[in-house]
């Protein structure tokens, strides 16, 4: 590799139109998602919050994809693991903790939803459901509305590899393909639908292969690389705004922890497999890229981690003593008022 090629590798973000500050911000978003997630595991094991589904291992795919969108007019229809996306679109550590503790101030639902069900009208995030992949046809509906009203909005809807086998995904993909809707289908393939390995879920080699049946492009990408995910999502968003229809992106990742706080992943995957996957932890590999590019050193990295941890500490303390919803609030938003 000559000096010019080495320079290109070290400055891949600039070739994508990203500034030094932007990629550092992407890294900061990834770190914050990891710190919040790690704290939630501690709180769950301490009996302080009831449940969580983890984003650990998915941060690069989520941040890279969300960063490619226009946060002023585009929409997210995330699934329960998409903390990194929610953070990029503006959700704070304090708001995430209010949700985890189910406090009255929870912006997602006022403490009425399960954790991980992100939703904010202000931030263009559609409220999620516990029904797997139900957000996918909803995302297609938003895209249809945008097209009918002549708006240049793009909708990104995300789901796991298990979710890609649900009827909702296939019906939504078919409808979006027929009507050339401005929607991006992002499958975060972490290789397990809870305990079922990908080899027992689908006969195709890649989730991206399924796009061909619906008449639009499918692409598989390394989900541990936020720049690659950013690149393909930007291209998909540009394609959608030109009226050329949907794109299916398969971001291949690895879930570094159990499926949820109620899961024991030792029953279906070996510790050696998990430890091998940790060598590609996106926080480590992206940190190494930033160091190679001269944007990060040990001191700067520690400063970012310490600052994000302080933010999580403050959010935890705030949410832990925040008031619960009033019991009568359980009746709100059930019937027209």
Automatic annotation (TrEMBL):
Q: Which cofactor does it need?
A: thiamine diphosphate
Q: Which CDD domains match?
A: TPP_E1_PDC_ADC_BCADC
Q: Which domain of life is it from?
A: Bacteria
Which sequence ranges form a coiled-coil region, renumbered to this chain? none
Database matches in Gene3D superfamilies: 3.40.50.970
Give the family this protein belongs to, as stated in its UniProt record. Answer: Belongs to the BCKDHA family.
Reactions catalysed, semicolon-separated, are: N(6)-[(R)-lipoyl]-L-lysyl-[protein] + 3-methyl-2-oxobutanoate + H(+) = N(6)-[(R)-S(8)-2-methylpropanoyldihydrolipoyl]-L-lysyl-[protein] + CO2
**Keywords on this record?**
Oxidoreductase, Thiamine pyrophosphate
Q: What is its EC number?
A: 1.2.4.4
Question: Has UniProt tagged this entry with the keyword Oxidoreductase?
Answer: yes
Domain annotation Dehydrogenase E1 component: ranges: 28-327
Could you tell me which InterPro entries the record lists for this protein? Answer: Alpha-ketoacid_DH_E1_comp, DH_E1, THDP-binding
Keyword set includes Oxidoreductase: yes
Mention any Pfam family matching this sequence: E1_dh
Briefly, what is this protein's role? Answer: The branched-chain alpha-keto dehydrogenase complex catalyzes the overall conversion of alpha-keto acids to acyl-CoA and CO(2). It contains multiple copies of three enzymatic components: branched-chain alpha-keto acid decarboxylase (E1), lipoamide acyltransferase (E2) and lipoamide dehydrogenase (E3).
* Enzyme superclass (EC): oxidoreductase
Give the protein name, as stated in the record. Answer: 2-oxoisovalerate dehydrogenase subunit alpha
Per the record, the GO terms for biological process are: branched-chain amino acid catabolic process
Query: Molecular function terms in GO for this entry?
Result: branched-chain 2-oxo acid dehydrogenase activity
């Amino acid at each position: 590799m000559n000096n010019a090629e080495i320079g290109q590798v070290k400055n891949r973000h600039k070739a994508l139109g990203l500034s030094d500050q932007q990629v550092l911000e992407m890294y900061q978003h990834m770190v914050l998602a990891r710190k919040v997630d790690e704290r939630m595991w501690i709180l769950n094991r301490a009996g302080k919050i009831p449940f969580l589904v983890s984003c650990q291992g998915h941060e690069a795919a989520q941040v890279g994809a969300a960063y490619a969108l226009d946060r002023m007019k585009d929409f997210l229809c995330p699934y329960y693991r998409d903390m990194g996306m929610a953070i990029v679109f503006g959700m704070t550590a304090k708001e995430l903790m209010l949700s985890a503790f189910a406090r009255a101030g929870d912006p997602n639902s006022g403490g009425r939803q399960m954790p991980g069900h992100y939703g904010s009208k202000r931030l263009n995030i559609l409220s999620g459901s516990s029904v797997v992949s139900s957000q996918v046809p909803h995302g297609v509906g938003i895209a249809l509305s945008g097209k009918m009203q002549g708006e240049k909005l793009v909708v990104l809807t995300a789901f796991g590899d298990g979710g890609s086998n649900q009827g909702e995904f296939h019906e939504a993909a078919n409808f979006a393909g027929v009507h050339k809707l401005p929607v991006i289908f992002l499958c975060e393939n972490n290789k397990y639908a809870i305990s079922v390995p990908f080899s027992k879920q689908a006969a195709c080699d890649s989730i991206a292969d399924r796009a061909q049946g619906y008449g639009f492009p499918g692409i598989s990408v390394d989900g541990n690389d936020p720049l690659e995910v950013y690149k393909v999502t930007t291209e998909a968003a540009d394609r959608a705004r030109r009226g050329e229809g949907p794109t299916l992106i398969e971001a291949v990742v690895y879930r570094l922890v159990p499926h949820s706080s109620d899961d024991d992943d030792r029953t279906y995957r070996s510790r050696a497999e998990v430890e091998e996957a940790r060598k590609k932890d996106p926080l480590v590999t992206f940190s190494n890229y930033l160091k190679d590019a001269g944007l990060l050193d040990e001191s700067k990295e520690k400063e970012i981690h310490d600052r994000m941890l302080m933010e999580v500490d403050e959010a935890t303390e705030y949410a832990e003593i925040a008031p619960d919803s009033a019991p009568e609030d359980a009746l709100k938003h059930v019937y027209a008022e």
